[in-house]
Design goal:
Elements lengths: L6 H46 L9 H21 L1
Helix pairs in contact: 1-2
């Protein structure tokens, strides 16, 4: 089909395919990033509950501690809104 098209038509179709693939790649990257954030949130929630049950958190690195702090702050704000 592409062979039967004029050179201008072939070029246009190729660009359309590149644009389509680029859009799809962007969409998939956004989905992966969203899923990564959701998984990280669940991990931090799990760690938070472990800490509340008396498990230590000394094994956490600085990034984990910062994320846990952020999650705790969000939960405190949510509780304060409910009160």
């Amino acid at each position: 089909m592409l062979r039967n098209m004029s050179p201008l038509g072939q070029n246009r179709r190729t660009m359309d395919q590149k644009d389509f693939i680029s859009q799809q790649l962007t969409r998939v990257n956004e989905q992966v990033a969203k899923q990564h954030r959701e998984v990280r949130h669940k991990e931090m929630t799990n760690i938070m509950f472990k800490c509340l049950n008396g498990k230590g958190f000394e094994y956490l690195n600085m990034s984990d501690l910062n994320d846990l702090n952020s999650l705790l702050s969000q939960n405190i704000r949510a509780i304060e809104r409910r009160i």
